[in-house]
Every structure is written in C-alpha cells, then in structure tokens.
Amino acid sequence: MTTRAPVVVSCGEPAGVGLEIAHKAFEALRGEVPMVLLADRRHVSGPVVEVASVGDVTGDEAALPLLHHRFAGDAVAGQPDPRNAQGVIDVIAHGVDLVTSGAASALCTLPIHKKALKDGADFAYPGHTEYLAALAGVERVVMMLACPELRVVPVTIHIGLADVPGALTPALLEDTLRITEAALKRDFGIAEPRLAVAGLNPHAGEGGAMGTEEITMIAPLLERLSESGMRLSGPMSADTMFHAQARAGYDAAVCMYHDQALIPIKTIDFAGGVNVTLGLPFIRTSPDHGTAFDIAGKGVADPTSTIAALRMAWDMAGKRG
C-alpha cells in the first residue's frame, strides 16, 4: 500500500444513507484507496476498526477505519435528529483540518441535510460548498460534476432561472473559467485544458434573434481570454454540445446555469457522477446525491457515486502530489 495519506470521509447526516454507502465503498475499494471515516461509533452498524489518529491508518485494515467523533443524539434511519446538527458541522470542519494539515490527502464528504443543520445548529450556509469555502478563506469556488465521459461546470448554480441573466457577469464567468482551467491542470493532469462554453440562450442566441448575452458579454470575454492563451470554444449552442462526437473535442463544458450542466451528465451517468469543488486549497469530492431518507436503513443504497468520488479524490491527490 502506498505511503500517501488516506482520504478522510465526513459522515454527513447520520440518519441518511451515508454510513451505509461508506461501508459499501470501503469493501469495493479495499486495498486501492485508503480511507478513514469521521463518525460517531454508536451510529455505525457495520464493522469498523477504530483508530486513534489518521496516521494509524495503514490501508490494510480488515474493516472500515473509523475516527470517533461524539454526537449529541442517536441515529435513527430516515429520521434526522436536530441534536446531531452540530456534530455534522464539526465533523466537516475536522475533515478540513486534517486535509489542510496534510494528515489526509483529500476530503470526501457524505450527504448532509440542510434543514436539519439549520433547525439544530442555525447553519448559516446554503450547503457544503459554501461552508468549505468559508473554512478555507476562499471567496469564490466552482462546482464541477464529473464522470468518465463528461465534466461539466455551471457558472450559476442554485438560483431561479429568472435570476440567471442578472447573476451572469463577466467577472463571474471569467473567474469560473480560470478556476476550472487551473484545476484541470493541477488536479486532473491536463496540460492544456480545452473548455467548451455554452451560450445562455437557445441556439446561443442565434445572432441576437433569441437573446443578446452571447454578443454583448460571452463572446467578447472568450475572445479576450483566448488571446491570452486559454483554449476556449464558444459560445456554443447547448443542445449540440453533449453528444459523443462533441464531447471528444473538449475536457470540460462550462454552462451558464444549473440544469444546462446537470441534465446531460445525469443522463449520461446518473449513478456515477461526482461533485468536485474547484478552487479550494485542498481536494474535496462528494457523491452526487442526497441523504435518501426514504431508503435509509434498508441496505439498498447504491454506493456507485461514493466509490467514484473516493477514487477521484485519490487520483486527484496523486496528480497534485
């Protein structure tokens, strides 16, 4: 087993499917990706090997390594307990401490339940990504969804469609493109990343007949950045960007809003997509699904996305060195 530090896994909402899929992922990746779970031992039903520190993980454990973190409440499948909210938050922060100190090589976060965090601990952030950015002291990060066939980046994320044109500024688009390019170089080993950039409007505005943002903002920005050496294509009509032949021409697609990016990747690989946060000083991946309270505790949760997230975190850590 490599001497590289393990991936630390934050347990997320203990009433969801996270702890179940952590065990399944460990079994699938045993001997390939060393990992350690941050969780309350009382919440974990499967076999574990408790460790006193991340440094005790060898990668050869017979059961999932666990670093115990005491929570205030019990865990009942499908029933989030607000008493556990602060524990969920603290485990994320602990994971960040471990990866920034070098004790862990990457952080993989299991799903949280935002309402439970707000109800139990007045959680002030929209989600994982914003909290991680705050912990890291980073003003702007980028969300990427990735699978073997496609990487997509939405410039605007969790806002109403009517609000997208106002939020889509040249500064935001430029930052997104630069952060994406830098991450593809550093964490994915792509020396000269090729970015395909979607237009905002149908048919990329069709020369202004269906909207003018492509003419007034997107195209001039892409031209300026291309002159500085970035490899950019666009603005492109989003409805022709995602078939197999088109995907072969770029390393990531940068889209203007949430569904424009997420519909194609979830169509191509619904179970195996990985959420990656770009622009952090450490590696963070996550499965691309939620807590799934409706199936929690039933033993049927699909670990495919978590397996992919752990494998990608490990590969990215290797690229970053």
TrEMBL record:
SUPFAM superfamilies reported in the protein's UniProt record: Isocitrate/Isopropylmalate dehydrogenase-like (SSF53659)
Molecular function via GO: 4-hydroxythreonine-4-phosphate dehydrogenase activity; cobalt ion binding; magnesium ion binding; NAD binding; zinc ion binding
One term under GO cellular component: cytoplasm
Intracellular or extracellular location(s): Cytoplasm
One of the GO BP terms on file: pyridoxal phosphate biosynthetic process
Cofactor remark: Binds 1 divalent metal cation per subunit. Can use ions such as Zn(2+), Mg(2+) or Co(2+).
Keywords recorded for this protein, A-Z: Cobalt, Cytoplasm, Magnesium, Metal-binding, NAD, NADP, Oxidoreductase, Pyridoxine biosynthesis, Zinc
EC number: 1.1.1.262
Keyword Ribosomal protein: no
Top-tier EC class: oxidoreductase
Reactions accelerated catalytically: 4-(phosphooxy)-L-threonine + NAD(+) = 3-amino-2-oxopropyl phosphate + CO2 + NADH
Binding site for substrate: 128-129, 266, 275, 284
Binding site for a divalent metal cation: 158, 203, 258
Other information: The active site is located at the dimer interface.
HAMAP family (UniProt xref): PdxA (MF_00536)
Protein family: Belongs to the PdxA family.
Pathway(s) this gene product operates in, as recorded in its UniProt entry: Cofactor biosynthesis; pyridoxine 5'-phosphate biosynthesis; pyridoxine 5'-phosphate from D-erythrose 4-phosphate: step 4/5
Name of the protein: 4-hydroxythreonine-4-phosphate dehydrogenase
Subunit relationships: Homodimer.
Main subcellular localisation: cytoplasm
Function: Catalyzes the NAD(P)-dependent oxidation of 4-(phosphooxy)-L-threonine (HTP) into 2-amino-3-oxo-4-(phosphooxy)butyric acid which spontaneously decarboxylates to form 3-amino-2-oxopropyl phosphate (AHAP).
UniProt source species: Litoreibacter arenae DSM 19593
Recorded name of the encoding gene: pdxA
Cofactor(s) annotated in UniProt: Zn(2+); Mg(2+); Co(2+)
